[in-house]
């Protein structure tokens, strides 16, 4: 865009005159390239340790085994229990964050007055900025005891409490991204709907939400990715018992909580136990990576739709 | 009628979210405020909950975040300048851009595994302040780049064109015209990224930061712990007295975050006034 204001020949002459300019551009470029190096670093570190792991454990045992006891005397390396734990907590979180986030977004985008929006949005940002260890404390010592009054058989560590708290934590992300998508929908569409006699609710749900669909989906996918990778809430409040179950009232263990559990212990480098955290990490990275790409692609698409 | 019910439902959900925030803050304040004292802030961890303090963790957090800022801020701002002012049309720039968006959404614990493999082992930095700061720097980098780009994009094009018309080079234009105007936005983004980093627990546990340190870190090579890890350590203990300590620790952590954000707001207002004058 700057090139347009500056003919190429003139630019070249000027760069020739100022010897430092190309050097500066190179330095800046190298800094930008560092982000690519980070991605490569992640892949190399994860892949090399995971490769060593699969030298000892069969891929099929890892992916289809139903017992996860790598730290026991007779270790079993079936990853499914911790995957199930992650899926269970994330589903609960999504059951809270998606409907609540979407409804708040609809309210903020379609109903709220400007002053209300100006006060509510920063508060939601505060909610998003609270460290996850604080949410963990809240889940273990406030939400779970509260739930135990309603569900007496709920154990002290469980999937339900942390799931709900994780949903509250992710809500601002869903709400703000979905609201952005809905505000991107041209006013003309809404006016057309009103002209046909639709009410505000009909317009919101049948015109604005479908029109912003790819943006809202992008927000949902990003929210799922956040839930899968969330660590401290589950490490504090969900327990450390890998268990293949759909029961939200018993202690479980997620992939992230397992990595924390091993990191807290004294597991020497190079042992099989040490490598399990990289194998689990690889699975987690692959899952979130695909979701993030899908979300980025969808966001790109809705940007084009109403550009 | 249905319309009204829907409106009330949406508003209710929104207020429920705000109520959750209020519940969280009140819960922590009620649990922890009795434990809060100067002795708690200046004290060292102890087996006795009533004697334990957070000084090593607080000092560790400040040192680590200092390293993070020193590494991530210059590199992040430089990368953003390149992407926004130089390379926005090339194919490589597009790939870098997509990559940064993606990195911003990678779970923080994965950065911990990267830090463990790269800084602690390969570069043999050990479980030091330096390794912790560098790990968090990689985590903060995408956030700083994204917010800095946003701030640069908000600078009007006419400002750049005016500068070129007076014969300034591209870098002169960026350094003397664009950056000063974008500075409030850039600073706000940096502080937000750093306050996110100061609350991070998982990546530092993964690189092996210790959970019980009885001394404050005395340099870049020192072993360390940070506030969130200390809180995690206390909240994981079964004794209620330690959980009170955790609540008090959370109050300190939130106070640090609040101060950082307050500074960001003040800085932004000051700089905005200066550039508008």
Could you explain how this protein is built, in words?
The complex is a heterodimer of chains A (307) and B (277). Chain A is an all-alpha fold. Chain A has a single domain (80-305), classed as MetI-like fold (Orthogonal Bundle). Chain A has helices spanning 2-5, 8-17, 20-54, 59-64, 80-111, 114-129, 132-150, 160-183, 187-195, 200-211, 213-229, 232-237, 255-264, 272-305. The longest helix of chain A is centred in the first third of the chain and has 35 residues, at 20-54. The two termini of chain A are 18 Å apart. Chain B is mostly helical. Chain B has eleven helices and no strands. Chain B is globular and about 70 Å long. The mean pLDDT of chain B is 89. Classes of the chains: A mainly alpha (307), B mainly alpha (277). At the A-B interface, helix 2, helix 3, helix 5, helix 6 and helix 7 of A face helix 1, helix 3, helix 4, helix 5 and helix 6 of B.
- CATH class membership of chain B: Mainly Alpha
| Major interchain interface with per-chain residue totals | A-B, 91 and 91 residues
Distance between the termini of chain A: 18 Å
Radius of gyration computed on alpha carbons of chain B: 22 Å
Overall morphology of chain A: globular
Please state the average pLDDT score of chain B: 89
By CATH's scheme, which homologous superfamily of chain A applies? Answer: MetI-like
For the secondary structure, the number of strands of chain B is 0
User: Number of domains in the coordinates of chain A?
Assistant: 1
Largest sheet of chain B: none
What is the CATH architecture assignment of chain B? Orthogonal Bundle
């Amino acid at each position: 865009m700057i090139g347009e204001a500056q003919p190429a020949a003139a630019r070249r002459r000027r760069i020739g005159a100022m010897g430092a300019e190309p050097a500066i551009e190179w330095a800046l470029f190298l800094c930008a390239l560092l982000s690519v190096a980070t991605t490569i670093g992640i892949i190399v570190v994860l892949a090399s340790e995971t490769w060593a792991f699969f030298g000892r454990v069969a891929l099929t045992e890892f992916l289809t085994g139903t017992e996860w006891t790598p730290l026991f005397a007779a270790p079993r390396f079936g990853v499914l229990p911790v995957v199930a734990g992650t899926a269970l907590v994330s589903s609960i979180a999504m059951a809270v964050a998606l409907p609540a986030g979407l409804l708040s977004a609809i309210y903020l985008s379609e109903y709220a007055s400007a002053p209300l929006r100006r006060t509510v949005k920063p508060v939601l940002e505060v909610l998003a900025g609270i460290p996850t260890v604080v949410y963990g404390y809240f889940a273990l010592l406030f939400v779970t005891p509260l739930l135990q009054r309603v569900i007496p058989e709920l154990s002290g560590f469980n999937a339900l409490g942390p799931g709900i708290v994780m949903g509250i934590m992710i809500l601002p992300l869903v709400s703000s991204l979905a609201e952005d998508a809905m505000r991107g929908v041209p006013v003309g569409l809404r006016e057309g709907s009103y002209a046909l006699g639709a009410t505000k609710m009909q317009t919101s749900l049948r015109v604005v939400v479908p029109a912003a669909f790819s943006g809202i989906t992008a927000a949902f996918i990003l929210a799922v990715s956040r839930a899968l990778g969330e660590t401290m809430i589950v490490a504090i409040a969900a327990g450390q018992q890998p268990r293949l179950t759909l029961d939200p009232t018993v202690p479980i263990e997620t992939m992230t909580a397992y990595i924390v559990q091993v990191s807290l212990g004294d597991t020497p480098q190079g042992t099989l136990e040490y490598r399990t955290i990289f194998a689990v990490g690889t699975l987690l990275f692959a899952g979130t990576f695909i979701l993030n790409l899908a979300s980025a692609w969808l966001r790109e698409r809705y940007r084009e739709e109403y550009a | 009628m249905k319309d009204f019910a829907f409106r009330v439902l949406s508003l209710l959900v929104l207020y429920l979210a705000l109520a959750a925030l209020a519940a969280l803050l009140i819960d922590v304040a009620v649990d922890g405020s009795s434990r809060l004292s100067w002795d708690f802030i200046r004290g060292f961890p102890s087996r006795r909950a009533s004697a334990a303090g957070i000084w090593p963790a607080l000092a560790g957090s400040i040192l680590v975040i200092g390293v993070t800022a020193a590494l991530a801020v210059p590199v992040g701002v430089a990368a953003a300048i390149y992407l926004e002012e130089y390379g926005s049309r090339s194919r490589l720039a597009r790939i870098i851009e997509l990559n940064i968006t993606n990195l911003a959404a990678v779970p923080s614990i994965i950065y911990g595994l990267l830090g463990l493999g790269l800084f602690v082992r390969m570069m043999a930095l050990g479980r030091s302040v330096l390794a912790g700061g560098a790990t968090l720097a990689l985590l903060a980098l995408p956030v700083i780049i994204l917010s800095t780009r946003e701030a640069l994009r908000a600078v009007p094009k006419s400002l750049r064109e005016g500068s070129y018309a007076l014969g300034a080079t591209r870098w002169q234009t960026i350094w003397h015209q664009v950056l000063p105007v974008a500075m409030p936005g850039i600073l706000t983004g940096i502080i937000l990224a750093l306050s996110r980093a100061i609350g991070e627990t998982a990546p530092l546990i993964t690189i092996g930061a210790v959970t019980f340190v009885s001394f404050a870190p005395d340099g870049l090579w020192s072993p360390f712990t940070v506030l969130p890890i200390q809180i995690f350590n206390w909240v994981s203990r079964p004794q209620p007295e330690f959980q009170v300590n955790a609540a008090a620790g959370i109050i300190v952590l939130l106070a640090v975050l609040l101060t950082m954000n307050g500074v960001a707001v003040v800085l932004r207002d000051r700089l905005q006034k200066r550039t508008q004058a």
